[in-house]
Amino acid sequence: MFRQFRDSVAVALTEALESLELPSADLGIEEPPEDLPATLASSVAFRLAGEMGAAPPQVAQTVADAIDPDGVDYLSAVDTQGPYVNFHTNDAYLADTLETAQADSYGRLEDQKTSVVVEHTSANPTGPVHVGRARNPIVGDAVANLLDFAGYDVDRHYYVNDAGRQMAVFTWAYETFDETALEDEPARDRVEYDLVRYYRKGNHFLENAEPAEVEAAEAEITSILQGLEAGDEAAYERVGTVVDQVLGGMKDCLARLPAAFDEFVKETRFMRDGSTTAVADRLKESEYAVYEEDAWQLDLSAHGFEKNLVFLRSDETSLYTTRDLAHHEWKFDNYDRAVTVLGEDHKLQAGQLQAALEILGNDTDRLDDVIYSYVNLPEGKMSTRRGTGVMLDDLLDESIDRAREEVESRLDDRIRNDDLDADDIDRIAHQVGIGAVRYDIVSKQPTKAITFEWDRALDFEAQSAPYVQYVHARCCGILDEADTMPELGAIDPAALSDPAAIDLLRTIARFPAVVEAAADEHKPHIVATYTREFAEAFNGFYRECPVLSADDPAVRDARLALVSASKHTVANALSIIGVAAPDSM
User: Fold this and answer.
1) Residue 103 included in any domain
2) Domain enclosing residue 452, as ranges
3) CA 108 → CA 111, 149, 275, 384, 558, distances in Å?
4) How far, in Å, CA of 381 to CA of 150, rounded?
């Protein structure tokens, strides 16, 4: 209802300004501070004060007097406080919110009739997914969920680097070294943990072997790259043997989050179909192309970049960015919009890519990048090349184990459900453990670095995943104990007269607008922030407003309906950020 009310206010305010013969741009509609009872406020008086030759409070009153609440959806009254025009909602606003939020799909927006491809993760298939890169699949999956919930037709893609030097080194090492010659590491249950040792062995060899041996190895690595560029099926098959095995293990890891993909798009696809060569030829013909230092480059100084973009080597082999340009043009051919989730170390490359796409004649307004900083543990940074650091699997295992210990330690806490069997504990441990990792990561603004801390992430009493998840479990417990729900038509919304109940209902009303704002900015952390605010509002309601023990049947039924609305709201909000909503905890 919040979105409808906001739109109604915008129309009413615009009409009022037109009646006063004032410009109606920049209405300044916003949510007022919490200590104001209004649902919305406008700061338009600040902008108009100079034009009207009056102080902002006087302008605000003039504007308020020009608005007739009658006929404006959900508007009960207009008043002012200082320079602000305040808009108050009527009883129908809360009643319609209570009714609308009974739907399982509450908060889902209308069809935007727009297709979007969200590319995320796209980690090089050189080994297991490590913690430092964990933010990409978690944020990327949440962005895709968010856009889907906001009414967009979303495809989720993983762009597979199967054509770069790293994969050529990996392929050469896999074919060169014996398994017995690999460094001694504990056995793992997935193939990428075994195969990454070849990659490390190969890099160690190239850094430490005799010059003649390195030269011979480099010649073989170059031949693999040239074979890919020339369309040699044998070269594709050699690299594919390694890539597909490692990628299979990485998929299993990502499925634990879960992060699912509609398609794994390989770089070599755009070499084999000729589009990479076509892109390179078009770039050569552009006014920005220069041949320097034995390579074709783009001079992007006119686009604000001091560093040139190399797009073709002297031996006519392409680079990652060249192939990615072909990839992005393919996206533009097949989707209305393209969103790419990237680590901060790719920020320069992303800017250069966008400039090159513009040179190629593409509409880059259709492209959006979500840039994120990395995740650290207190132990420090991580690297798959040298075999140090913590893998995402390890982080998830540890989180599940810690969540299980926490759940088991609370079995005697009478506030919580202590009728949990072993299967329940295992289910909750997985839901809370995985949820804690996802929530802690997605709840932060992407550009801020994260140091993951267990005590904060798994705190059942603080603003964390289990804190919010428990609200859903509590809603389920109340509804299960009630057995039957009253008919919606028989519920009297006016029975929700307690301030805590009204505050909760107003928070529920905001949810679709939160989805809209977060989707517009590609910022799922906005939804995570909302879940914390929602949990606080629900807990306030739970403390102040007994549900099943309410003396008045009308109050009991209305509060039950409010619990049902709360259940749908928090479940859908958690689903957007990829956190499970447990039925019991």
Assistant:
1) no
2) 392-576
3) 9, 5, 38, 40, 23
4) 36
